[in-house]
Amino acid sequence: MGDVMIHRWDEVDYDRLGGLIDAVGFDLDTTLAKSKTPMTRDMADAFAELTHHIPCAVVSGGKYHLFTNQILAMIGDKANRRNLHLMPTSGTRYYAWNGSAWQCRYAHDLSPEDRDAAIASLTRHAKEQGLWLPDDRIWGDRLEDRGSQITFSALGQLAPVAAKEAWDPDRAKKNRLAAAVAADLPQLTVRSGGSTSVDVVAKGIDKAYAMHQLSTILNVPIGRIAFIGDRMDPDGNDYPTAVAGAYAIRVTCPDDTLEAIRRLTAVLSLTTAE
Ligand SMILES: [Mg+2]
Predict the structure, then answer these.
(1) pTM score > 0.85 for this model?
(2) Which of 50, 116, 119, 157 is paired with 24 by a 20 to 30 Å CA distance?
(3) From 27, 45, 238, 256, active-site residue
(4) What is the arithmetic mean of pLDDT over 199-213?
C-alpha cells in the first residue's frame, strides 16, 4: 500500500482542489454536525449551496433516520437533492432522491446468525470490562440493531454530547472492547465507532467500501473524490477513505468543515453555474 495522505483542512489549496475533484464526501458526526444533533443553520445553508456545484455524499456509521434529523430537516428544498447521496451505516445502505422522495436504492444487511453472535459478544465483554453501566446512568438503549450493523453505545443511544465526549477521551475503553469482541467474531469486522460506540459489521464494510460504492454510483474515480472527516487518525472511522485513495481532508469540528465548504464553494462557483 502506498503512502496515505491526510490533508489538514486549513492547509488545503482550494483553488487547486477545485480542479482535482468531481465529488465530495462528508462524515456526519463532528464533521457536518455535533453528534446526533441537527446541523446549524449556517451549515445547512453552506452545505445546500455546495450541492448546486458538485455531487455531495454523506457517509456515516449512523442510521438513516439520523440523516433525516441532522441534515434533511435542516436543508429542506434548498439543496440540489439530485446531487446529494446519503450513505448511512458506512454505505451498506444508499438513499437517493427520486424526484419526489428519498428512496433506498440498496441495503446490505447482516445475517440473523451474525447479528445474534454480535449482540451476545458485545453484551458479554461490556459486562466483563465494566462498560455495562447501570440503567439509571445511561440514556436510551445500549444495543442497537441497524440491520447492516450492530452498535453498542456505552452511555446509550440518546446520551448528551458532553457526557459522551467526557467518557472515553483517549478511546482506550472503546478500543479494548472492540479488540475483545473482534476475537469472538473473526467472520465480521469490529471497530470503534462514534465517541462511545463499538460497531460490528460485515467484513470489508467501512468507509473505504462506501467510497467504492460511491465511485460506482457516480461513475467517478475514487481519486477524484474528496472526503472530509474528523476521524482521520489511523484507527479512526474516516481513515479508510484515505486508504481507498480519496483526497482526505481532516477537520476537528463542524466549524472547520463550514469554512472548508465555503472556500470550496467559492472556487467551484467560478467554474460551475446552475
Ligand atoms: Mg465523525
Answers:
(1) no
(2) 157
(3) 27
(4) 90
